[in-house]
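User: My instructor asked us to take a sequence, write out its structure as tokens, and then describe one feature of it. I'm not sure where to start. Here is the sequence I was given:
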Amino acid sequence: MSTKRTIQVLIKLLPSILALRKDRRTWVRQEGKNIDTERYRKNALKVLNTFINLGPVYIKLGQWLSSRADILPQPYLEELSKLQDKVPAAPFDKVKPIIENDIGPLDEKFDNIDQNPLSGASLGQVYRGSISGQQIVVKVKRPGIEKVVAEDLEVLKKILPLALRFVDPNLRFSAKAMLAQFIETIHEEMDYTNESSNLRKIKQDMKNNKNVVIPSVYDEYSSENVLTMEYIPGIKVTNVEALDDKGIDRQKLVVDVHKVFFTMLLRHSLFHADPHPGNISVTNDGKLILYDYGMVGRLDNETRLQLIRLYLALVEKDPPRTVNAMNELGMLTPDFNRSVIEKGIELTVRAMHGRKPDEMEVQSLMELANKTMSRFPFVLPKNLALYMRMTSIIEGIYKPHKVDFKFVKVLREILEEEHLIKDAYIEELKYSFQRFAKSIDATISIAPELKKFIDDNRSIQLLNAKPKSNILLSGSILSAAIFIGSAVLYSSNESIGITGMIGSLVIMGISTLFRKK
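Assistant: Let's start with the prediction itself. The structure tokens for your sequence are:
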């Protein structure tokens, strides 16, 4: 079965792989400029439809690829981000045994369950019901999905790494890691105890935010295969007409969407990574309701601060700091060429942002990252890929509203309200001083004759009748080491580099004064 399925998948994917290879090469060569955008979107739409036809695993793969700026050109990312997970639901008589096996007899545990599904997805389907008079929704794993996923993941292990290398040899750096990340993600989504845990954590993190409503979980009615939650209906976030009928301030709504998701990202360790319009509704009084916590990203504190550093560097159009932050985040391969990547970022920023940073929107920031990543051998960590997916999808939410919105202004508000700017600059200073210390150490280690010279002169110092001259010698050596280290550091941080050079001159001056006394 595996061989037959592999051939079937390969035949269906081959036209898309060939088209992507050509489109990516043109995109990289022309740096995303003067391309036939319509042709790119047409090819991307064919990829989207192919994934839908191939079934659940490939629908998930399409959603995952929509976050991979290191693999796909921007028009592909935009099209695949529209891929919403909608699949006809399996008959209820096949779903009922799953619920009863995990939770117990339906007529004993529930008041009722509507056998007509609210929605069907690749991995599960959702039903309305009630428990003790409370309206609930029950999310049930699709019958037989484990076997389908296992078979198709085996096929992907054979096809995907080869396909990506064929598209671009540079992708050999990210192909294996990307596949491992995707497999990990799909397994996490298939275990509803993970989603339950995600939901509770985000609900706790956002409890003081008055602009968002998060459903409660019914733990006694939930398991690995079943997730029972509070039912909270609302207006779809992109339904402009219905929102206007309710008198919702849509400009404030757009700001609230960004504040909620970016606060999750930049303040807390867990963020919702799938904010497409089907997962966000609005209450009658304008609060956001978030659904579906299967796809989340996790950032440790160090990564979170580095991401803030990266954002500030991009907003402030500072290529050296941008490269520093990207390297600290693990986005660059060990043998990356700093000067080449810095130049690429600098040229892209110049070409794209003739405007003031305050006027830059999230799309321009993402295009900057996408174009740069497509040109160099980047290794995009899993949770940063999920972050980019989240950011890209949110961009699509506010477009239908056509309101006056400046992303960077909102981002700065978040950073100020959450007291994050100070933390980011402290991290920047820590990084600069660490690099400074390494530069001095490197300077000394590459000049062993200096060490030998110092050792040789220790005996002379004991016999020398003019000890004050040794102060000048020691000061000269220390001053030289600091000056050379500062010169090395200057390329990545001018301020610290200049400070170090001035410091070296001060040390030299003090040494001279002591010698004269």
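For the description part of your assignment, you could build on this observation: Confidence is low (pLDDT under 50) at residues 356-360, 465-469. Try explaining in your own words what that tells you about the chain.
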